Amino acid sequence: MRTITQRCTQIVELELDLEEFVRPDHLEYIQARREALSSLVDSIPKSLRVLLYQGHDDAPWKPAMSPLNVIPSGVDSVSSNLRDLSIYLQQLKLVNTTIAYDFLCPLDEKGQPKPGSLQLNWPYLEVLELEGIPPWLPLGEPTYHNTPEDQSEIDEIENWEDVICDVEAGWGWPELPTEEHFHRLLISLGYAAQRMPRLKNVKIEVESHRQFTFCLQNKADQIILK
To answer: Which residues are CB-neighbours of 112 under 8 A, at least 6 positions away?
Structure first.
């Protein structure tokens, strides 16, 4: 695929459907697959204007289990390469993609734009859709947490193999959004949107028991926020 995209130097639209279930215990393969995705995104010519990507959420066996760390090096090149490509796009749609919540405008630990972030501009971007975003970050950090009662039950689990094999156990999603992560998502989006003069539609969905949804439509005579 990378060779094809490199040779299509004037490509304008690209739709990638790389949804592929891989057993969570094949973690090294999942990590290598993400590295391959990073390399592919980095190879896409800057002539591209529309990117539609359907991935896989790299989920653990059960929602009650800890998420997977898909970037053992700590360097999230998928998020950074998607950001670098996005400044040339008119439409960006990601589905089931594990990604940094502040990938558009990277923030520091205090929630402030990192050096260089405010120099980014998206002169063409009109449509931004992030659907089915998993409730965790690439390093395996969850963006939702359990109630104290649910967490106490999880802490008592001694053998996760039993939970995996039990068809009825382990399906409870963490219910409470961790505010810090969603603050960062909205702060990053806010900074980025100020530099998207042609932006018409934004849709962000974080998949969980309590789904987070943000929708914005910028029409000629009104702005609709849902």
So the answer is: none
